[in-house]
User: Which sequence fits this backbone?
């Protein structure tokens, strides 16, 4: 039976806002993780596989201060010049040829176009750039330190025009940092705080099982949910299943060592650093109708 830990004892009623942390055993996707639908690009993602998994332990804590979310994607500059664009178009045509003969004919056509190109100013510049690339390669092999643009600038005062564009390049996972203050008021709350800290530490630790000698099993993962009473919070962001990257506990959060008679520190602070297992995609918002989504 799943256990429930909470701090403080009287945190829950029909209007209370709180953070629910569920601890889930990590289950690898196996070979099925690679069996995506090529038509839709769908694959088995860890966060999706674990989103409805049963929780071994549920921890209920007050929503800490300074909460927020940040969604980001990678964009980077990419450049291509006329010579490269010309080469790519011709290589593509050769690769897509129906037969070796057609590919050979495409190569012959490229040679003819290059020869004819010298009759135009733009074609002559293109040929000069190609020649410069060859010269730069040979010169740098002999110890020079120059570039095609450097050589062209020295000879004609021109450089190759680069078509620069900002292009989508990558996705990223989100991280969330929380800091919880514990000031237990009763013996029961003190025991709950001790159990909460120990349980999270154990869940975040890798598992060295005697049955898997030489290998480590993955730590548990965490499902976070902002709650309002018994329902998901109607406004705040949602989370994908997370890994706990770091847990740190300050047992003298007030700056002075002080404990109760049983040794329980009077004021503690626990800091948790989570990272979601998968990036956020547009399709995820379709399954998150509440509030601001992700």
Assistant:
């Amino acid at each position: 039976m799943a256990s429930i830990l909470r701090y403080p004892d009287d945190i829950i009623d029909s209007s209370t806002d709180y953070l629910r942390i569920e601890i889930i055993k990590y289950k690898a996707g196996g070979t099925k993780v690679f069996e995506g639908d090529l038509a839709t690009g769908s694959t088995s993602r860890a966060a999706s596989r674990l989103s409805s998994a049963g929780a071994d332990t549920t921890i209920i804590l007050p929503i800490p201060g300074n909460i927020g979310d940040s969604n980001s994607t990678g964009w980077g500059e990419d450049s291509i010049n006329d010579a490269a664009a010309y080469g790519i178009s011709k290589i593509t045509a050769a690769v897509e040829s129906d037969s070796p003969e057609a590919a050979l004919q495409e190569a012959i056509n490229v040679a003819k176009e290059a020869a004819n190109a010298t009759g135009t100013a733009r074609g002559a510049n293109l040929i000069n750039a190609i020649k410069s690339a060859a010269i730069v390669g040979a010169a740098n092999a002999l110890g020079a330190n120059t570039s095609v643009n450097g050589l062209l600038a020295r000879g004609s005062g021109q450089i190759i025009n680069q078509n620069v564009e900002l292009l989508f390049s990558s996705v990223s996972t989100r991280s969330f940092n929380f800091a919880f203050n514990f000031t237990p008021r009763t013996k029961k709350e003190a025991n709950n705080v001790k159990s909460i800290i120990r349980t999270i530490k154990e869940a975040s630790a890798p598992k060295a099982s005697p049955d898997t000698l030489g290998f480590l099993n993955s730590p548990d993962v965490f499902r976070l949910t902002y709650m309002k009473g018994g329902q998901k919070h109607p406004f705040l962001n949602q989370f994908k299943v997370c890994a706990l990257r770091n847990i740190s506990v300050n047992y003298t959060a007030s700056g002075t060592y002080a404990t109760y008679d049983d040794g329980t520190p009077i004021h503690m602070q626990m800091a948790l650093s989570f990272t979601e297992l998968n990036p956020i995609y547009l399709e995820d918002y379709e399954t998150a109708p509440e509030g601001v989504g992700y």
Observations:
- The chain has two domains: 3-72+173-287, 75-168.
- The chain is about 30% helix and 25% strand.
- Residues 3-72+173-287 form one domain.
- The chain has a mean pLDDT of 84.
